[in-house]
User: Fold this.
Amino acid sequence: MIKPILWIIYSMTILDVVGKTPLLPLFEDRVGGARIFAKAEFLNPSGSVKDRAAKAMILDGIKTGRLTKDKTILDATSGNTGVALAMFGTVLGYRVKLCLPSNANKERKRVLKAYRAEIIATNPLESSDGALLKARQLAIENPETYFYTDQYNNPENWKAHYNGTALEIWEQTEHKLTHFVAGMGTSGTFIGTARRLKELNPAIKTTPMQPASPLHGLEGMRHTETTIKAGFYDTSLFDGQIDVTTEDARAMTRELAGKYGLFVGISSGANVLAATKLAETLSSESIIITILCDSGFRYLSDELWD
Assistant:
């Protein structure tokens, strides 16, 4: 019996360990308000929730024949999706080219280089929108060269959460969650998860978190009123909206590390802060789920930790 078991273990790849992340209870020392749980997406193999969408988009490209060995995987990224694409590209034997704002932090750039991805630096003043427009231009001008995953418009992005994240949350809470709160970059995590949860139970409230202003420091999050929206952006899934300032999100991120041992990124702090704001308005019978998007190790050079 030992040999078959070992064969199963050793035949696994990085792709097989994406998802099925634990749900962690938060603030059990606090009294009053709803209970809060967080999906520990920083435990995915590349360190972020973006592993789910990156895996789905690449595998769909292979399945449909649009991604072949003579093509280079291309996309725009603020960091996490690019890291995931680069990791899977390395494992599966594909070249990866990523358009990234030149002011992205050095941790992300170093990880991308470790995975041998090619980086095209874009204008930092144009933020992630500039990277998106550059990738789109390259894809249009060189259709035979690139497989453009196009995370802002690829339905496999939100479907990864519709078919994965949402169902995991549903089962982990024994169908008892009442609210879901998460920020939006491409909006794939929120849209896919919210859509499925509402199908499973229309009474579940799904509320997006958003930076409080266009100029903010919530890495990976977008102020939707002033930036390019994803093709699958769907306000019909919104039950209100919670705005979070960069300063308050930073404070929560430091609290999660220093008091609760959760060394996560600032977008995770923003999500948790939004969940706490919502919890204060609800009864103790309510159960709120949010997302811990990525690891704090991806932000070691950030002044957040000074």
